[in-house]
Write a structure and sequence with these properties.
Layout: E1 7-13, E2 28-34, H1 39-51, E3 59-68, E4 78-84, E5 87-88, E6 99-105, H2 113-120, E7 126-128, H3 131-141, E8 145-153, H4 175-184, H5 189-211
Amino acid sequence: MVASSLRTILLVAAESFELKYIVPRSGERWIFAANGPGPELAGQAAGQAMDGLTAPLDAVVSVGLCGALIDELEIGDIVIGTSVNGVGIDVPESTQKYAAGPIVSVDHVAQTVDEKLRLRQTGAIAVEMESAAVLARARGVGVPFYCIRAVSDTSSEGFELDLNAARDNAGRFRVGRILAQAVQRPLTGVPELLRLRRNSESAAKALGEFIGNCSF
């Protein structure tokens, strides 16, 4: 690696749409990576991005959407992790509103309200699928790690569509499988699909606005 006067920040998401509203801070070099949902794909995304760097890496940030585990969180609310699966992590500086607390990172979509209730017993306030793997990569190269998420489904919301069944062998979501499920149950599946799209868009916008004003 060669010396650089710019701080280099790696932001890793599951899907590229989670990154589309994020605008890098002036005077810093931000690198975006997305390779699909889940720990394996997220770890690959982080590793490949790190391997391609020609300058020292100053911080790694796991970003994207999350499911709320506590009733106080609503769609679009920002969650900053203070730990991931019990491992303490760094917290960015921000003057904006956010909720801070433990995050639990799992290898599948938390489909039901009952599962969210069980995960809440760990003390976590939100659930997602990638940050544990990205944290491991960051620790492997000895740089600070942050986790910033925006809520796309509340603690009282489950999914009629089986999102886990819509993933392929690599773990990526297949739009065709999701649409096929929605068509098979149009009275519930189609409205849920529209809700998911609307909530995901709202959360991505909130995430972009928040992260653009953070200091790592």
